[in-house]
Design brief:
The termini are far apart. The chain has 35 helices and four strands. The chain is flat, with a radius of gyration of 33 Å. Helix 9 packs across helix 10, helix 28 packs across helix 29 and helix 32 packs across helix 33. The C terminus is likely disordered. It has about 500 residues and is mostly helical.
Length: about 500
Amino acid sequence: MNKFVWTESLLLAKAKEFKTRTEFCRKASGAYEAAKRLDVFDKICTHMPKRKVIKSTWNITSVTKLIQQYEYIDDFRIKERKALKYIYRNKLNHLLDLIPSKKVKPSHWQDITNLKNEALKYTTRGEFCKNSAGAYSAATNLGVLGEVCTHMKFVNRPNNFWCKESILETALKYATKGEFIKNESGAYSAARRLDIVDEAYRHMTVVGSKYERAIYAFEFDDMSVYVGLTYNYDKRLKEHLNHNHTVGLKAKEHSYTYKKFNKWLPPAEAAKEEEKTLNQYRKNGWTILNKNKTGGLGAVSKVWDKQACKSAVDSCSSVSEFKEIYPSAYTIAHREHFWKEISVSLTKKVERNKWNKIKILEVAKTCQTRKKFMTKYGGAYNKARKEGWLEEACLHMKRNSKPANYWTIDTIKLEALMYDSRKEFSVKSKSAYGKACKLGIIDEVCVHMSANRPKWTFDLCLAEALKYKERSDFKNSSTTAYQAASSSGWLQDICAHMPKRKNQYDISKSCK
């Protein structure tokens, strides 16, 4: 079959269908590219108005006046991003020195007088550390923390503070076990020591379980219902709503109630209970949306063996559904060569040679980035790349990559201001974080972050050790402090209040 060839007359006729060059590019990208290639683009687009170039409203005078409206340059950096970009783009960084900054240079904290003046603003070490992390860190590193904090109150709970009443009272502040363990490690350790963990957890809701299953139901306003089993309520809700299957498609058209039964049972018992619940809905006149029989246990957080993969297969109706919900099980089944055996009941929804140019362009319009296009429609992406349609399909997509040499000291500092901790900075902006480490300015750009943890000094180790009655509790609950004290030779001093471990038998008696 002969390929279609664009000529100047055909391009002129096509161009007359559009009023603007942008519309021409979006709706007839093939003709648009051909006109560029044949060098007749300006000739066929004479009837189209050229795009007006909008000049920047910023100049040195307007930016200077705007800066002087702020008391501190830090507020200007956060609230006036467009003006800040103009300053960086035109290399006008000297304007940022017109007003003072709330932050101080690291060298400022090398003076003990400055540290003492800063410490006088706070009444406790915790408050000092939280509100002035740079000064606190410098005082710790210089070994003068005790000297600058002499006026502060030493906040510490007595050794016998965590009794049954105080533990249960503290546990009532939290709704889940994870929050309690994370925020009250001392109370949690004491609860385990007193064997009252179950009593402390009594009022808390169970988010999930590794070994048990619970029943859930999607009740829709048209008297239809879907019943299933899960090991994590929140995760299962997201899986249903993010996939275009029975529940996901139904939820887009009808309002629903996500009902949690909160009855956690072993998998076999939970499967029987699910069948009872489904039959009860059927007797009450509900339309059942479940396509497969009850008892599928869904995804589990354990090693996938043949039996576990088979149970997961029973809960799906097609290969694509199984691959999307259980990707790790799909990979292991292929690697261990039992995929053909367990996948007999699954249907293949995607037919071969499904993707043509029209369908590829349609699905590409639903994706905003190439990465999403490649992840969601891998077959369409590969077909478009093979046939040379990829650029046309991705014309509307945004490119998230930064240009070469984008990360300078100034752009890294601006990027770092968007995050509150080093961990968040490293996860959400890996390239900027890596460049900062490479340039050796990571401490400078992260001064404002709360994750600048001070080193364990003698005073901090002593304060931590006083929370525990035994060395084993100290070692298990505060490992970093224990190791720091041990390596520095402070362990005997800070653990003097702890009783020594008794020998199992008296040596003198055993020798008689």
